[in-house]
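RECORD TYPE: inverse folding
INPUT: structure tokens
STRUCTURE:
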């Protein structure tokens, strides 16, 4: 695999520049701040894109989160993909320069890591009904592990809302076997809701109880790790509030 010295050779990044004409509020649709383009003759898979900093560093960079792309999204040859951000914390700080980091993009023969770009955003996340980023996280697992945890922020899902976490990527691509997991193998370590697991679709469902605000953590038992050390896989998150998120975990 070739690692790009000049990422623009393989991956084009175009910033939207100054997007302060639109306030980014807690209930705003995700705001486009840039565009990625695939300049090679093979698909490129997004490993992660994140907010690296906001302003001069005095503002907490967790106010914003990348809404799209999510880990596992693929840009086909000569295609474009928008980078969008959304509010993750109910705080307004006004117009700030936001630096975004393309942590890693990989193809069959090339790997691009670390390019950044800037956009100026009017951050008014304290305004509007706030739902925020799901902040989903899947724990890394060892080759002999039989349990894994996932966590997320349920804020905004509402009472009796549903969260779906999809484990199809590790299941279908030889990383982790979840076919033995049943409802009794799920433990809600923090959270008030109920869980279920569909082994056929490799999907975990969490149903909220009341308007939950605190992070939810769920442990899955009876998993079988079949992949090798160093392999990484993606999970995806959706909920009835319309949020989408994802995370990458590694076999260690």
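DESIGNED SEQUENCE:
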């Amino acid at each position: 695999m070739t690692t790009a010295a000049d990422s623009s050779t393989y991956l084009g990044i175009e910033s939207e520049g100054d997007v302060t004409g639109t306030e980014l509020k807690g209930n705003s649709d995700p705001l486009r701040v840039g565009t990625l383009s695939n300049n090679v003759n093979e698909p490129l898979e997004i490993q992660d894109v994140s907010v690296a900093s906001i302003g001069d560093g005095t503002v907490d960079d967790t106010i914003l989160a990348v809404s799209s792309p999510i880990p596992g999204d693929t840009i086909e040859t000569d295609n474009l993909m928008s980078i969008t951000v959304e509010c993750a914390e109910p705080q307004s700080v006004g117009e700030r320069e936001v630096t975004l980091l393309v942590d890693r993009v990989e193809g069959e023969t090339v790997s691009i890591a670390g390019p950044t770009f800037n956009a100026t955003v009017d951050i008014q996340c304290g305004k509007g009904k706030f739902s925020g980023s799901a902040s989903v996280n899947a724990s890394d697992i060892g080759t002999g592990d039989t349990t894994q945890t996932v966590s997320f922020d349920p804020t905004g899902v509402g009472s009796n809302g549903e969260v779906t976490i999809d484990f199809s990527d590790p299941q279908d691509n030889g990383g982790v076997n979840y076919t033995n997991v049943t409802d009794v193998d799920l433990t809600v370590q923090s959270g008030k809701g109920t869980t279920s697991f569909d082994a056929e679709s490799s999907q975990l469902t969490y149903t909220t109880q009341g308007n939950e605000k605190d992070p939810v953590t769920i442990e899955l038992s009876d998993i079988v790790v079949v992949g090798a050390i160093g392999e990484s896989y993606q999970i995806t998150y959706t909920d009835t509030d319309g949020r989408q998120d994802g995370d990458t975990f590694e076999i260690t």
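NOTES: The chain has one helix and 22 strands.
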